[in-house]
Amino acid sequence: MKIDLAQISSQLDSSNSRDRMLALAYLREFSPEEAVPLIKKVLYDEMLPVRSMAIFALGVKPTEECYPILVKLLETDPDYGIRADAAGALGYLEDKRAFEPLVRAFYEDTEWLVRFSAAVSLGNLKDPRAQTVLLKALKSEEVLLQQAAISALGEIEAVETISELLSFASSEDWLVRLRLAYALGHLPGEKSLSALKFLAKDSHPQVSQAATTVLERLDAKELEES
């Protein structure tokens, strides 16, 4: 059954939170210009899952309105989960203006989840200026922040950080090693290849498979370019 914008708008006013979340899901079929005014209706919903879904929707339905809305949520919302969602959505926007607010969130927010989302989004922006922030995250005692930083440094192709990254090849956390394997695929060079060959023999099957897949992809790319 085809549902129109009027029906979605009515469903967003439902007292049932499941109805409101379904309405947000229906908006995926509409243009950003059509969807964003309706998404805004539940940005401050009483149910956090609805708010979270609405914030994500702003990140994937970008209009000129979305950026300032998300920055305001990141900087002022009292709920750290919402701030983290806003940081993540800013990464989806891939708007270079988000660099400064994301950096501020990383340095100033007291909640690690917000800092984690900010680090991930800095990688999504692919802005080389993020390198300093991500190296700081790499030195964090919080393992999830390390994972985010490793992935992001790969995304921004920060070849200069290869020595710092390689120190995680023997991390006790297999997810850290997994993130490293994927990141090394964006950082070509002899050191990366050597580390990938090491990780291809990792005791954890997901790590060894990831490293093997990355090595195969790099070999195929080299053949194409030769």
UniProtKB/TrEMBL annotation:
Keywords: Antenna complex, Phycobilisome
InterPro entries attached to this UniProt entry: ARM-like, ARM-type_fold, PBS_lyase_HEAT
Xref: SUPFAM superfamilies: ARM repeat
GO CC terms: phycobilisome
Name under which the protein is recorded: HEAT repeat domain-containing protein
Pfam families xrefs: HEAT_2
Naturally occurring in which organism (per UniProt): Lusitaniella coriacea LEGE 07157
Keyword Metal-binding: no
Domain of life from the UniProt record: Bacteria
PANTHER family: PBS LYASE HEAT-LIKE PROTEIN (PTHR12697), SLR1687 PROTEIN (PTHR12697:SF39)
GO molecular function, one term: oxidoreductase activity
